[in-house]
Amino acid sequence: MDRWYWCNSSLTSGEVVSTTVNGIRLYDGDKKTGYDDGRLTLTNHRLLWRHETQSSSLGLHLSLVVLVEEEAGSFTSSPKLLLHLAQPPHSQPAGPVAASSNSFIKLSFKHGGYSSFHQVLQKAIDNHGWEKAPSLPCNYGKQPGGKAIHTGILGIERAIQAKQEETNQNISHAFEDLKNLMGLAKDMVSLSKSISNKIKERSGDVSADDTTQFRSYLLSLGIDDPVTREAFGSETQYHHNLAKEITQALEDPVKEAGGVMLLSEVYCRINRARGLQLLSPEDVMHACHVMKKLGLSLNLHTFESGVQVVQITGLDQEKVVEATVEVLNCHEVDGVSAGDLARDCGMPLLLAQERLLQAEQCAKAVRDESSEGLRFFPNLFFSRS
Fold first, then answer.
1. DSSP one-letter string for 31-52
2. How many CA atoms lie within 13 A of 55 on its CB side?
3. Which helix (H) or strand (E) holds 319?
4. 3-state secondary structure of 257
5. d(CA 17, CA 194)
6. What are the residues facing 370 on neighbouring strands?
7. Which CATH architecture has domain 5-141?
8. Burial 283-296 (b: 16+ CB within 10 A, else e)
């Protein structure tokens, strides 16, 4: 309420009434005030509120209005207009409140009409009629000394535009730095390969394990020359070379994961290794489909449930089932859920569930469905037959 000031109801030079509405109550933020059931007049310069028993009016200059929002009513409350306001100038006349902790007010419309009033109010704010003819002796929109401050919608638009220009410049500089960084990264990967080869050729001081670990650290910088669609004349060649790149980059991680990796994880890992040269899910899918045809060390496998994984070529499924059965045998009494297997073997939950179902299909496991969920047990009937 500290943005309102006491004034008479007479219009100033150049001021024209736009619309008038009755039954308006004023709010200070979300708090009701005693200024109820008044007549609200909108001019091209101000909002004027006056109760019929009062001789003076409360005025609010439109240059202080930053944003107007509608607040729908309910069974117990009237619809309202929420006005976000800028700080008033020091030269503003006295008002009903010296200072307020709220930066917005509300206008409650008991008899409706708030949407149409909102439209007229927004039009008056956009027209900036107060700039064409000053309505009050105080210098609204100016600081002491004559320096203009940008208030209202125009000021916000100018501030946003300036911020956008600054952001665009920062983004341009950032991309220039990123290009330089990408160039340095390629040099670093090439250097890492050269150093790794030289260390591997040396004998004596450096062990094979140290050499392997050093190479792993350096090559984790990423793929130095990723396959791109523009480098090949056809989709087939592109996907064939992409399949080779995925195999080369992920063969060791797949082995470390037990020989099987979910296709979703393959997609995430290869894109992380490629940096800005990102692949679409369709390209990764097509590349994985041709792995078996090309005789690569990785290939795509689809479970009966439809879950797809990339696995080591020639992976012995019987050994995978036996490894799952070993875990079941360790929990013969309580059984094993997919979450238990995932936690014990360090694998994704979805893959753990597929392994339990695979063991069940091979008659090595049986299931127990209860209110506690789905658990698997070793098939003792099969083992004792």
1. EE-S--SEEEEEESSEEEEE-T
2. 0
3. helix 317-330
4. coil
5. 81
6. 373
7. Roll (2.30)
8. bbbbbbebbeeeeb
Helices (H) and strands (E) in the chain, counts: 12, 14
- Note down pLDDT in tens along the chain; length 385 residues: 778 888 887 888 888 888 999 989 999 888 888 888 888 999 988 899 888 888 888 888 888 888 888 888 777 788 888 888 888 777 788 888 877 888 888 999 988 788 889 989 998 888 888 887 544 444 444 433 434 444 456 666 667 777 777 776 666 666 666 666 666 566 666 666 666 566 656 655 555 555 555 555 544 545 656 777 777 778 888 899 999 999 988 898 888 888 889 999 999 988 888 877 788 999 999 999 999 999 999 999 888 888 889 999 888 778 888 888 888 888 877 888 988 888 888 888 888 888 888 888 888 888 988 887 889 998 887 655 4
CATH topology of domain 317-384: Arc Repressor Mutant, subunit A (1.10.10)
- The tokens for 18 are 């736009």
CATH entry, 229-296, from 3.60.150.10, 1.10.10.10, 1.20.950.20, 3.40.50.150: 1.10.10.10
Q: How many CB atoms lie within 10 A of CB 357?
A: 20
Domain ranges in the chain?
5-141, 157-219, 229-296, 317-384
Query: Do the domains 229-296 and 317-384 sit in the same CATH topology, yes or no?
Result: yes
Place of tokens 């027209």: 127
Q: Are 273 and 225 in contact, with CB atoms under 8 Å apart?
A: no
Query: Residue 383 and residue 326: Cα distance in Å, rounded?
Result: 13
- DSSP reduced 3-state for 380: helix
